[in-house]
Design brief:
homodimer, alpha/beta, 16 strands, 39% helix
Chain lengths: 450, 450
């Protein structure tokens, strides 16, 4: 077996391999594709469950795997406060910390700073805020938010942005959008200068090992916690670039409040900064659903077709299908998990408030058309009993079902796009804003599980 | 295939088959054996996790199966109050209600009435009490407690007893013991007269189906909810005795407080009433551990060797091994599950209070010698983070591990007895009372999860 040093172009290719997006099928504006990240592949369109502090509340990681969860969202703000970025970094990054050897995305912390913390003060430099846990003082700048995200080591990280409050006047919204653009540039600059500091180990990082096999003819893991760029190849123990040369991927975020021209300008100028993926932020903050769709439309047409598009913090099961129809590839929302903990369950027969007395003697499955481990084993009567008795298992099982419902919806969406049947599929889904208005749980939710 | 009516002696044999206890190996006073119940087989000695209201808090039933849980304990008092006996009966009994197609034991409700409810008033007739949930008034007599347990439909049920308070004077303890004996006789009488009212369905009741195959040459299930004793065999759809002729099994309970002669008398006179199994109750109520062992010893030598012996409400992992050495076959305790929810974890290296800061950066498994799904996947650092962050998953994972530790202990105990190595095994386990005194969680616990 011949071992040799990588050439410069090989190193360049390796770094490029940190992220790739391939579109496999399109129907109308909807796309089905694949994201390739250092911790694995994600089929899009994808719904990302929220695991705020490194856990989807109440659900063990093996159950998430059984459910077919492909990628999780973790909240930088929460992990920064507890257990702290340095702790997670020393433990090898969020994937290793929570034993989730699959892709993870972290938000920038901006949204939580604005929605959860006290006494925040925003300046051009960044945001001073107090912890919602203990009132301690902290500061996030674009640089420090990216540093935190590099320390946490998610596969996809987000530029630090200001989530403009709703409602907001035009001038205020424009100023906020401009600052987000400046922060995006600073985020990118810091990331480019520091992206090699990601804490991943080669050991246990499947794609990196595969990569080592491809390049060096050996899958021999490098020593733990080694971050050296050079290598003594004497014993074949180490390879250059312990993390396989792979880095995280930084997405930009489009803002612009509820003004279509600002959304357009934000999209265009964020694209000029050139990110490998783009998020649309600052929506689902209390505005009516038709407005959300209008703002998505205003932004998305100016985002490049060959890059993934991530709509942050949405939505109901009907809404996410309609956002896919607008060209969205990635979404996250606390709705399925938070609603589950409040006994609100999504089924093929509509919403169910499981505490309702009508279910007390109902021995039928929660959703007869659902194949999840809750619907195939337990009755509505039992789930109602657990919820009424305030039992832990209610929250566990309800969460598993709601996630199954969301993930199954997205599987069917991907399949429909692949087989050119998405238009037909979409026709069977109520218009998002109507479904939303009639839903018992049509509340706007921040991207945090608390 | 020839179908015919069962003969009287076959029917008699079927009813006897509702419960069987076989001892397979003995070493000293310790025994390894098998219980056969209508919902399956239990290898003894066995530890029964507590699933108070029809759930082991936070743990889905498939995980309990993966853990190797053989039999669960449910609390009659709790299920009686919520969702109510009639509801559970209509839903087919506790096994079907909670989708646990394995053996279940219910306690009599007596202990909870004494420990949880308000304003109880004890008379010869029974106990008047108020619900701890809503203050509503209720009454348990031996008859109504057995009726409740028949309605719930556990495989093994318990005579209604008075759990004598501790400490108690000799005269008071003797009077209480005498009343428990009279209640035991009334419990048995009511059970014998009503045991055919158990709500089981043949469908899904594996052993009953097996039985139908053996007797009638067909496993064809009988119609749901049929409780008819007669049958129209025209379509081959129904067989006599829809529940396979099987009934629940009623155990008697030895009381006698902390007086060896009363324990002896209670044991002897309970045995005279002739139960298929005997429990020792009223221990682990605050007395020192050597006293517990003395009382177990005082009672157990007067219990028949060919019947199972169930020591109620014990104990630590060390204690349960020592009780096995005294000849105990069955135990239950909330300790593993309740301690787990309080972050107290049992490991081969001793007790761990997972909130301790020393574990914050500890990436080693909770117990390196444990093969459970918690120890093989997550680090102490992650478990500490979950607990410190008050995350639901902390309670779920901690409970899974503590149960795994208890169940693994009992598996090793059974194996040791089977291979004649129990004396050696026992020598490696600290004396129960010493282990208990040094344990951070050596508190006495009632048999209820709250």
């Amino acid at each position: 077996m011949v071992r040799r040093w990588a050439t410069e172009s090989e190193i360049y290719n390796r770094i490029r391999m940190s992220f790739r997006f391939e579109i496999e099928a399109c129907e109308g504006k909807a796309r089905a594709g694949r994201l390739f990240t250092p911790h694995g592949e994600v089929r899009t369109p994808v719904f990302m469950p929220v695991g705020t502090v490194g856990t989807v509340k109440g659900v063990p990681q093996d159950t998430l795997e059984e459910l077919g969860v492909q990628i999780l969202l973790n909240n930088t703000y929460h992990l920064y406060l507890r257990p702290g970025v340095e702790m997670v970094r020393q433990l090898g990054g969020v994937q290793k910390f929570m034993s989730w050897d699959h892709p993870i995305l972290t938000d920038s912390g901006g949204f939580q700073v604005f929605s959860l913390s006290d006494l925040r003060k925003v300046t051009e430099e960044g945001v001073a805020f107090r912890s919602h846990l203990d009132g301690s003082s902290h500061f996030f700048s674009p640089e420090s938010a990216i540093a935190a995200q590099i320390g946490l080591g998610a596969d996809i990280i987000m530029a630090f942005d200001e989530c403009t409050e709703h409602p907001a006047e035009y001038a205020r919204t424009k100023a906020s959008m401009e600052m987000t653009l400046r922060w995006a540039a600073r985020s990118k600059k810091y990331f480019e200068e520091h992206k090699q500091e990601v804490p991943w180990f080669s050991r246990g990082l499947k794609s990196a090992e595969d990569f080592n096999v491809a390049l060096n003819g050996t899958a021999k893991a490098v020593p733990l916690q080694s971050t050296r760029k050079t290598s003594s190849s004497a014993a074949g123990e180490a390879v250059p670039f312990p993390n396989g040369g792979q880095t995280q991927t930084l997405f930009g975020i489009v803002q612009g409040g509820m003004f279509a021209d600002l959304r357009r300008e934000s999209a265009q100028r964020t694209v000029e900064l050139d990110f490998p993926g783009y998020a649309i932020g600052g929506l689902s903050v209390g505005e009516p659903r038709p407005m959300t769709h209008e703002m998505v439309e205003a932004a998305i047409r100016f985002l490049p077709e060959d890059k993934p598009r991530y709509l942050m913090g949405v939505g109901t099961p009907e809404e996410i299908v309609h956002y896919v129809a607008q060209g969205v590839d990635m979404m996250d929302c606390v709705l399925p998990t938070r609603a589950a903990r409040h006994g609100l369950l999504f089924t093929s027969e509509g919403r169910i408030a499981i505490k309702n007395a009508r279910y007390a003697g109902d021995d039928s499955p929660l959703d007869p058309r659902c194949g999840c481990k809750v619907c195939t084993r337990y009755s509505r009567a039992y789930l109602r009993h657990l919820y009424s008795s305030n039992e832990l298992l209610a929250q566990v099982l309800n969460t598993i079902h709601n996630l199954a419902y969301y993930l199954d919806t997205m599987r069917r969406v991907r399949q429909a796009i692949t087989f050119g049947e998405f238009a037909k599929f979409l026709a069977g889904v109520p218009a998002a804003h109507r479904a939303s208005q009639s839903a018992p749980n049509s509340f706007d939710l921040g991207a945090v599980e608390s």
